[in-house]
Amino acid sequence: MSADTPHVLVVDDEADLRELLVITLGRMKLKATAAESLGAAKDKLNSDRFDLCLTDMNLGDGTGIELLQHISQHCPEMPTAVITAYGNMETATDAMKLGAYDFISKPVALDRLRQLIEDGLGISHAEGHQEEEDNLIGMAPSMQALKTQVRKLSRSQAPIYISGESGSGKERIARLIHNLGPRRDKPFVAVNCGAIPSELMESEFFGHRKGAFTGAVEDRKGLFREADGGTLFLDEVADLPLHMQVKLLRAIQEKSVRPVGEAREFQVNLRILCATHKDLANEMAEGRFRQDLFYRLNVIEAHVPPLRERKEDIPALVNHILQRLSNAWETSAPKVSDQAMTALREYSFPGNVRELENTLERAMTLCEGQVIEVENLHLHGQPSYSPVTKQESPKHATLERDSSQPLEDFLQEIERQEIIKALDATHWNRTAAAKKLGMTFRSLRYRLKKLELDQDEGE
């Protein structure tokens, strides 16, 4: 073996399993060193350099948790996985929080063991892609702490629960965790759980066979298999109905899915990230979210701070967003007057970064010349903001159609105005806007697309 051959430390108090792991690593053309106890493992770590560590939880003179604590202090860059016969959710959570990138129970299938080793070695190869992190705008202490946490989380395979208000950028954090990790070259599949009709969820998640039900005109892989090897991001996971939560839990635990109408199961290897703007612990306490699924998904929580708690980041965000919009529109980026920037910094932004994006896009459209002024921002509560008065309200106004205007266009314009008004009132929270309009989220999304009002997730 050459000097570049990855070196793996195997720690297990059972001689047979140590030997099996060493043989498996040898067949993968990897160099392996075995240790039978916690003390022996510490000696090996002090005297040699390793690219990966596989450890049992029961080590005779200590535990795998103690070894993880030692590794986190003395060689934190080395990926470590726990393989044990004493697995439970609490132990797995402790191991993940101490830096283990994965946790599996014995007996271990050979293909699962190979995947575990490849994932661990892939973490080292993924180092050096820090340019992705630079796209996360913000120097506030809360954002610096989040960046540090994201770097650690990207090395792990643990499920992550990303909490934060609507529009704060939860999907962006999920993408960053994926892009900085060893699965960065594999698919990142994001799905809004609240946007899928209940009766189609099983098919959307797990796929279906042609002819399994009316409308199944061809085979479909489903989201789990589309994300195989990569990351599946479940946005608004609290909106999943209880019957679907049971099926989701089984798929995560068994790492396999069965498409609708299919007799066999398919193995999947993916990382689950999830997010919701709701309080997931409260949803569980109220009985709307299963406790076992909550603990399965919420191994580690990453919180995205609201924009009002990091106002010092607003100027940098404004410049970044204006530059991005200008590139898309193929124009030069406008400047923001001192008064307008002060107004932006003093505004509370209940819709967070998504609202800031919408505000700037509207201001770029309305401003005269190359300077955005306060009156172009139309912030709620500002003197320049002119809410619809009772006399001007469409409820009281008389709408008249020009005789030359087709009825379809006239009705579509009314629909557009009502949707924009609901979105503005809810700071472009589409779920809340749909409720305000008395329609489903899916119906609103269809109309946004039809009226060309659809916009991507914010920063």
Automatic annotation (TrEMBL):
Region named Disordered: 382-405
MF (Gene Ontology): ATP binding; sequence-specific DNA binding
Extent of Basic and acidic residues compositional bias: 392-403
Keywords attached to this entry: ATP-binding, DNA-binding, Nucleotide-binding, Phosphoprotein, Transcription, Transcription regulation
Residue span(s) of domain Sigma-54 factor interaction: 136-365
Occurrences of domain Response regulatory (ranges): 7-121
Residues annotated with 4-aspartylphosphate modification: D56
Pfam family, one: Response_reg
GO biological process: phosphorelay signal transduction system; regulation of DNA-templated transcription
Family annotation (InterPro entries): AAA+_ATPase (IPR003593), AAA_lid_NorR (IPR058031), CheY-like_superfamily (IPR011006), Homeodomain-like_sf (IPR009057), HTH_Fis (IPR002197), P-loop_NTPase (IPR027417), Sig_transdc_resp-reg_receiver (IPR001789), Sigma_54_int (IPR002078)
SUPFAM superfamilies: CheY-like, Homeodomain-like, P-loop containing nucleoside triphosphate hydrolases
Official protein name in the record: Response regulator
